[in-house]
Amino acid sequence: MKIAFITAGAGKSYCGSCLHDILLIQSLINSGNDLKVIDMYTPLSVDFDATPLPVKKIHYSGINTYLRQKFAFFRKKPLTLNKFFELPSVVNFALGFGMDVSPVQLGEMALSVLKGREGNQALDLTGVMEELKKSAPYDVCVLSNSMLSALAPEIKKELNTPVVCQLMGEEAFIAMLGEPYRTGSIEALRKNVRSVDAFISHSDEYSKVMSDFLGRKAEDIIAVNPSVNAAFYEGIKRRDKPFTVGFLSKMNKAKGLDELLSAFIVLVKEHKADAYLLAGGEILDGESKTYFEEVKKRVASAGIEDRFKYLGRLEFAAKKEFFKASSVFSVPSLFPESKGIAALEALSAGIPVALPDHGAYRDIVKHTGGGLLYKPGSVFGLAALLKKLYDEPALADSLGETGRESVKSQYSVKKMTEMNIEVYRKVQ
């Protein structure tokens, strides 16, 4: 198949969406498909060695998108300076200085991008379409996420090509935008996706969430298993003692580290468990820093400083060591997870999971048999699961190993690729 794949980076952050797209793009190419890859915002970033994809230009580069949003001068016509800001090396250099990526701060720009031709980034949209036309026609155009959906009406109009849109947790991002940007973004998104032929979510449960959010029929949203490369985690054995609860995610309230901490305190204080809490993940912005400082204050007030350790951002080698040091894995997300990549990585390492019963987590536990679920928001429910795995190491070992083998079969790169191609063929 000839496929245009439009993907979006997340700055220097390692994110599940970047991991998903790199694995899928490489596998599609290796399977003999002809891919035209359009990179947007920033280069893709993952924490493992991946075959580099040739990137000559970053469309809607973070620098240009910001300049067009703030200064009308940059919206009138393409400038040599704008071309310079599209170079991957320049974008990466700028990322090295750090930036506030809080969704609360991005509301105005997010809405503008979703408005397409009516937004401040119309020149960027034109640039993407010109690039796509160079290699047209295509059998299908794939959008990495629905925040890129302003491209869908243009692709249908100018290329007459079917559009498939992946769903990657956009509703959680939009929910954190301030008004009027939250409501405006939902309205613009629903208008754009009228031009999408099919959507790919990564679990049956998340499909239900997005059907309501997008205002589309359930049958338009097809669940396709995501993937991790399970071979990366071969040979890791779950730690029995000391019993250590592992958390790995970006540091923000939506991922629920404070909820896990509350459950951990119950485990240690009320159940008298000899346990430790190990947290890894990136602190991204001022809001994230404030949140983590509150977490540290709670650790101190509970008197468990010697039982809590924060590892910061983890490169791949450090992430493997993190899993080796974990007895159970939990990220108690407040929003239904769209993919649950970190949970799949933990299972690949033979670590059982304790997760809230919603979104992709429900499907992951159902399909792998590698963990236990609790009622979302229930601190005591989570504490009870941790206590059970603490008291029954044989059960924890069994869940972890069952999960490891199931990820290899149910969430392989090969299966993910075949399921995606099946969707692409349906819309042709």
Can you offer a commentary on this structure?
- This protein folds into two domains: 241 residues, Rossmann fold; 181 residues, Glycogen Phosphorylase B (Rossmann fold), CATH 3.40.50.
- The protein contains 18 helices and 13 strands.
- Helix 10 packs antiparallel against helix 15.
- The strands form three sheets. It has a seven-stranded parallel beta sheet, sandwiched between helices.
- It is an alpha/beta fold.
- The model has no long low-confidence stretch (mean pLDDT 91).
- Helix 15 links the parallel strand 12 and strand 13.
- Helices cover 47% and strands 13% of the residues.
Classify the beta-strand content into a percent band. Answer: 5-15%
CATH class of the largest domain: Alpha Beta
In helices, the fraction of residues equals: 40-55%
Figure out the total of helices.
Answer: 18
| CATH homologous superfamily identity of the largest domain | Glycogen Phosphorylase B
CATH fold annotation of the largest domain: Rossmann fold
**Which geometry do the CA atoms define?**
globular
Strand arrangement, major sheet: 3-2-1-4-5-6-7
Main β-sheet: number of strands, strand sense, barrel status?
A: 7 strands, parallel
Tell me the total number of β-strands. Answer: 13
Quaternary class? single chain
- Structural class label: alpha/beta
Which helices and strands occur, and which strands form pairs?
Elements: E1 2-8, H1 16-30, E2 34-40, E3 58-59, H2 62-70, H3 80-84, H4 88-95, H5 103-114, H6 122-133, E4 140-143, H7 151-159, E5 163-166, H8 170-175, H9 181-192, E6 198-201, H10 204-214, E7 221-223, E8 243-248, H11 257-270, E9 275-280, H12 286-301, E10 308-310, H13 316-324, E11 328-329, H14 341-348, E12 353-356, H15 359-368, E13 371-374, H16 379-391, H17 393-410, H18 413-427
Parallel strand pairs: 1-2, 1-4, 2-3, 4-5, 5-6, 6-7, 8-9, 8-11, 9-10, 12-13
Helix pairs in contact: 1-18, 5-9, 6-7, 10-15, 11-16, 14-17
